[in-house]
Amino acid sequence: MKLFSVIFLASALLVSCGWGDNTHYTGGSSSDTINHENKSADTFQISGVKEMWDYSDTIKSKSIKTGNTNPDELVSFANTLTGIPYKYGSINPNEGFDCSGFITYVFNRFGIAVPRSSKDFNEVERKISLKESKPGDLILFTGTDSTIREVGHMGIIASNDGSEIRFIHSTSGKAYGVTTTPLNKYYQGRFVKALRIFNSNNN
Fold this sequence. Notes:
The chain has helices at residues 2-15, 71-79, 99-109, 185-190; strands at residues 23-25, 33-35, 41-46, 49-54, 91-92, 96-97, 127-128, 138-142, 151-160, 165-171, 177-182, 191-195. The strands form four sheets. A six-stranded antiparallel sheet has the order 7-12-8-9-10-11. A two-stranded antiparallel sheet has the order 1-2. It has a two-stranded antiparallel sheet with strand order 3-4. It is of the alpha+beta class. The chain has one domain: endopeptidase domain like (from Nostoc punctiforme) (endopeptidase fold (from Nostoc punctiforme), Alpha-Beta Complex), CATH 3.90.1720. The chain is built from four helices and twelve strands, in the order αββββαββαβββββαβ.
């Protein structure tokens, strides 16, 4: 039974970053989950600023409403979280983020609801080429097993100068936390798609 549990957990980590469809994390132990239909808020301390956070601010939709948010401001905020450790299933900056928990936290900071699980971003519009990606766009990857061509990891495009693309993400790899990474050969092999989230990036 113990061996089965270990194999099951490892499979989940390989396939998708983040909780399943019906729950999302509110901090604390892995049993502290709530249904998307419920409302809950926690108080976190970030750089001396107290914030109330509503964890029901997630969606299951093909369209993400960004309002008047400037993508450069969103990327700047994401960069302030660099160094926060990786923690599977977590959206709590005091404890760490998984990859989609990081995305959720960053976008929710600007009042933007997003899917909680990385695999749910596969249905989000609209797909763009890497060449046209800009800061604030999203980049989707497979899990660590690139032979399984399903979305299991993701990040935010931080820069694209025409010769190198860099993205910020929460990784369970060597950096083990929020870091900015170049789109090297390893991640090119895991690349699934890039998504245009902000209409302002069309200009």
